[in-house]
Amino acid sequence: MTPSDFIRPSIKSITPYSSARDEFKGKSDSMIFMDANESPFENGINRYPDPQQNKLKQVISNLKGIPAENIMLGNGSDEILDLLIRIFCEPNQDNVVILPPTYGMYEVLATLNAVEIKKINLLTTFQPDVNRILQQANDNNKILFLCSPNNPTGNNFEVSDIETLLQGFKGIVVIDEAYIDFSQQESWTKRLQEFPNLVVTQTLSKAYGMAGIRLGTCYASKEIISTLNKIKPPYNINQLTQHVAIENLKSEFETKNHIQTILKEKHHLTEELEQLNFVKKVFPSDANFILIKVDDANERYKQLLKNGIIIRNRSNQELCENCLRITIGTPEENQQLISVLKSL
Ligand SMILES: *Cc1c(COP(=O)(O)O)cnc(C)c1O
To answer: Which of 100, 205, 225, 298 is surrounded by the fewest CB atoms within 10 Å?
Structure first.
């Protein structure tokens, strides 16, 4: 079996919508465009954006050292995750495997597509239960979602565990690397050649500081990427997003600086949190947030809220009883959090 054998037959045979900008790609400013029913009055945004985002993809390609033909862009990585489910999972028949506690959108998107969810909880170490995942596998397991570093636990999954899953899992393995830029572990994009069933997603929403423009990236085999491009909404990345992303990705220096600050602050915040008597555990984090276990999560959450600080109460998630998730802020914000916590 190759990944293309997993593509739903109806997707394989689909004829994609051919947009005006797909059919004629000419560039010359001297040409008259009367093909797309746009307004002819120039205001900087009156034309449809490039449906294949070639310029932006080239910037990302250079930045990541990955050929453009292995890159697909989405309206946030959430859009990419949705398209992946639609490519590989037959509604009311196939299922996706998720490893709670993890990012909530996998379940929402699968349910939205009438695709069953198979949950195999992480071990108490927050590592995947590799044996159970492989022992309980069946032919309808089309996608395994691995979030590494994992949200909300913050840890990387062991490289050897992921290798075993890439080799042993019969379907597509999606590694969600939303927090990879904060991690010491190398991105799995480096190993796409080795594993044809590997799909990696990343985002500009976290380390790159561009959550507001909604841009997610997907890296996979040429075949999977061309299928994603075939079924995505034609103009899914708007012109403003393409423009702002190209401009902001020029200043990689600033992003690296911010990452260094956040890592330093995370270290500092961890030390401070460990000294508080109502904090029972500070889980190690490879991301830009920290998960802590406290005496009474609901109560502590309310106390912080009263002091104008909003964190995430994760205590209803599997293995996360009385757990709170705190995003690392600016040094000033972190200091304020610490003084409020000390005053409780
Ligand atoms: C934040 C987050 C995303 C969402 O990324 P967008 O590109 O903003 O849609 C995806 N996966 C995980 C694990 C996240 O925490």
So the answer is: 298
